[in-house]
Amino acid sequence: MTEELTMIRGIDDPALLRRGFTLYPRGVMAVAARVDGVLTGFAVSAFTSVSLDPPLGLICVDKASTTWPSLSRAETLGVSVLAEEHAWLGRQLASRRGDRFAGAEFDERPGGALWLRGSVARFDASIDAVHDGGDHLLVVLRVSDMEADPSVAPLLWHDTSFGAVAPLGNK
Fold it and tell me: Which intervals hold domain Flavin reductase like (predicted)?
C-alpha cells in the first residue's frame, strides 16, 4: 500500500507553516546552565553560526517560554549539539513537564554553563544581543570556548521526528 503525498502550501495556517519549516533537517541542541543553584535548560533546533570573528552563534527562543526568563540570567550558557543516542533527551528537554535533566550527564563549566557528555560539540556562550523575531527572540551568543568530536553522529530534527545523518559516500 502506498501513501499519497500531499503538497503543503500557504502561510495562512500556522500549523501548515510550522510543518513546512520542519521539512528542513537541522540539529538539536541542549541550551543549559545552573541558575541560582538550579539546572535550567531546554532543547532548540533553531541554531546557526553567525560569525567567526567575533565568534557568534544564534538561537531562536519562543517568547512564550517559561524557562527562558531564568536561563537568560545565566552568566554563561552551555550549548551542546545532541548525538544520535540522545533522541530520548531531545524529547525530555523539549517537554514542559517533569525533570528535563533526569538521566542525562552534564559537566558544569565556570560560569555555570552545562555541557552534555557525549555530545557532538559543546560551546560556552554569553548573551551578546537579543532581537525581536515575531513570536520568537533571536538570541545572539558570543562563544568563549568550545570542543567537538567529529566522530560522533549528530541527532537531526526533520518532519516532526528525530533522524540520523546518512552519509552519501561522496567525501
Answer: 21-164
Name the one residue in this structure whose C-alpha cell is 537568560: 72
For residue 53, which amino acid is it?
Answer: D
Spatial contact of 122 and 148, defined as CB atoms under 8 Å apart:
yes
CA distances from 156 to 89, 109, 127 (A): 13, 26, 25
Query: Which domains, ranges and CATH numbers included, belong to the chain?
Result: 27-155 (2.30.110.10)
* Per-residue buried b or exposed e for 25-42, using 16+ beta carbons within 10 Å of the residue's own CB: ebbbbbbbbbbeeebbbb
Cα-to-chain-centroid distance, residue 105 = 17
What are 64-68's contacts with CB under 8 Å, separation 24+? 64/135, 66/96, 67/40, 67/41, 67/42, 68/42, 68/137
User: pLDDT tens digit string along 114-158?
Assistant: 999 999 999 999 999 999 999 999 999 999 999 999 999 999 988
Write the pLDDT tens digit of every residue in 28-60. Answer: 999 999 999 999 999 999 899 999 999 999 999
Which residues, at least 6 apart from 60, have a Cβ–Cβ distance to it below 8 Å?
Answer: 44, 46, 47, 133, 136, 137, 138, 139
